[in-house]
Amino acid sequence: MSEPTRRTCGRSLQGVQVSASRRSGATDALGPDEPGPERDGPRGPNCPDSHDGSDLLAALLDGMDAALCAFDADGAVTHWNREAERILGWTAAEAVGRRGLAGWAVRSADAEEVEGRLMAAMHAPGRQVHEFALLTKDGGRVLVRTQSAAVHGPDGKPAGLYCAFSEVHAQIDLERSIALSEALFEDASWGVVLVDADLRPAVVNAHAARAFGAGRTAVLGRPLGELLSQGVEELEGALTHVLAEGAPPAPAEIRVSVRTPKGDKRRCWRSGFVRLASPLAEEPVPLGVAWLFVDVTEAKQAEQEASLLRFRTNQLHRAARAAAECEDPAEAATVHLDFALAGFADHALIDRVAGGTAPPDDATGTPVRLVRIAATPSVGPGPSLLTGRAGLPLRPTEGHPALQCVDRIGSVRATVGTAPPDQARAWAEARQWPPDAVHALCTVLRSRGRTLGVVTFLRAAGRTPFERPDAAYAEDVAGRIATALDLADLLKNGRT
Question: Which residues sit opposite 134 in a β-bridge?
Fold first, then answer.
């Protein structure tokens, strides 16, 4: 093909490019007959293949999420994509070729200011951001946010400008989403962890890193089993469920043990989960799970303590009302014992001091002997039974917690700890307690300044050892039992 033929083919194809671009919603920046470095020569081995460039450009412009229009140096519209058509209603055929925006896309009264600010972007560095009110085809107004920048020709001089715009409320929503994301991962007062589809942390905020006891980067990509010693199965089960089914309807409380240099640390985390899906895919593609949690360990502990206190207070109240109906004060003492036992201990014993009361503090050399007068059944549940009618004292055992309690006039706690079952049984039997007892709390019975005996509460291996709040509750019960036993002595001796 001769040189003139090639040049003619280049021009005619360029005209086709413009027409195709206009039909699809965009036009080339240069006109069909304007010369250019590429237009004056062949575009490739075969001239008809040059359609691909304009088709690709048109597809890219029409596939943009933002509306886009472009102007040449004289202010004529050269590009108008489908998103611009969606927002304003003007088609590419109606928009391309118009000079300026006055009277159709902008009110005539505002056109001078709007076009002046837009065209100023051709001579300004970088992008210029503005907000304008544009007109829709049906006469409505839309507030848009624009980003404008110059388009330079081969000689480096401004040849026009492009303007990308979107509705302000959509832009604000996007900015809010970005700001929320950044705030969650910087300043949030609760833990935020993005877990990938392999159930490994991909992004961790500062609060969550502190909860794990590690740095933000040290947590990333590690299996949850390396961070938690307990609660991993429950947490991974929740994450797997969210990936498959979506977010649960309410937060869940998950108890975990965090591995720390000082040992495992038990925590309770109130957790919420949100499944993350790609916004770019036609169908939801799970990217992972957003896990938000807050440590409620102290709050749960306080709640449990308050609930326990209410229960024990109610038990004391019920016991007092039931004991008031007993004709025999000794029976009233066992009523107090039975009500105190609920949720508190597995066994309970009442041991009276032989002879009625313990010797005065200044009496020396007089050993204290105890007589068991009431006990709960050692096998199976049941009410306390009055025993010890024969008045035979228990065999003395050196260092017995009940004797220590009388000696100190205070509460004494004892436990066998984690000893093997045979040693624990021997420990309990040596102290004349039920064989399954492993934790004991002995509280002195005091009335009118005298020591009447000891009440002992026992727990089996399935319970925790007694603590200070337990001792305070036992002392309340002991005071009521001591009053009932003292009244029984007065009645027995014929005194009122």
Answer: 142
Contact 142, 49 (CB under 8 A): no
Beta strands in 73-126 (DSSP E): 77-80
**Separation CA 362–CA 359 (nearest Å):** 8
The model's pTM is 0.60
Q: Determine the Cα–Cα distance for residues 78 and 92; give it in Å rounded to an integer.
A: 9
Instruction: Give the whole-angstrom CA distance, residue 233 versus residue 158.
Output: 63
**Token pair recorded at residue 392:** 């035979």
Q: What are phi and psi of 205, to 5 degrees?
A: -85, 175
Q: How far apart are CA 389 and CA 264, in angstroms?
A: 52
Q: Which amino acid is residue 331, in one-letter code?
A: E
Q: How far is CA 393 from CA 105, 373, 493, in A?
A: 107, 10, 21
Distance CA 367, CA 423 (A): 29
Instruction: Say how far apart CA 426 and CA 433 lie, in whole Å.
Output: 10
d(CA 12, CA 47): 10
The predicted-structure confidence for 198-235, as pLDDT tens digits, reads as follows 899 999 998 999 999 888 888 899 999 999 999 999 99
Residues 264, 260: Cα–Cα separation, whole Å:
6
d(CA 436, CA 379): 10
Q: Which two tokens stand for residue 224?
A: 């949850």
Task: Copy the structure tokens of residue 410.
Answer: 């205070």
* CA pair distance 338, 320, nearest whole angstrom: 12
State the amino acid at position 443 in one-letter form: T
**pLDDT tens digits, residue range 4-15?**
333 333 333 233
